[in-house]
Design goal:
The protein is mostly helical. It has six helices and two strands; from the N terminus they run αβαβαααα. It has one domain. β1, α2 and β2 form a beta-alpha-beta unit. The protein is globular, with a radius of gyration of 17 Å. The two termini are 28 Å apart.
């Protein structure tokens, strides 16, 4: 999961045989965002996903949480029966997460999956995420 600027927020691992949409609630629960001036929890206003995330229970759950789903309908669905209209302009910004995944694949240790244990692999993913944040804070390596 990332924010609107392409900065990673959190990552979880799931078994390869399970679809990633089954872990959406766990992913959002594991994202701990808090305000800078207060301790209140911040939730995303909108959540974009591809057609693999198109299910009634996902739309219902996101709307219960106060999050607007930006997920296109499948070809065999009635687009007018959805509770919220699809925003094509916002969906185009979904390329941000694709660029983040592309960057993550450039991290050699993550892309080649040297780690045998899931917890070690997730640690390498999170370490890569930390490295990305450090490049934002101190982009000039001579300052380190």
């Amino acid at each position: 999961m990332c924010d609107g600027k392409g900065q990673p927020l959190t990552a979880i691992l799931s078994p390869g045989q399970d679809h990633e949409s089954q872990y959406l609630q766990e992913l959002l629960d594991s994202t701990e965002l808090s305000g800078f001036e207060s301790d209140e929890q911040i939730f995303p206003a909108k959540l974009a996903g591809d057609k693999g995330y198109r299910a009634e229970w996902i739309d219902d759950w996101l709307l219960e949480q106060g999050i607007a789903p930006v997920i296109p309908s499948k070809k065999n669905e009635d687009r007018d029966s959805r509770a919220i209209p699809f925003d094509k302009g916002l969906y185009r910004r979904r390329c941000i997460i694709e660029q983040l995944i592309g960057w993550l694949k450039e991290c050699r240790r993550v892309a080649t999956r040297y780690e045998k244990l899931a917890r070690n692999y997730l640690s390498m993913v999170k370490l890569s995420m930390i490295g990305r944040y450090l490049r934002i804070i101190a982009p000039d390596e001579s300052q380190l």
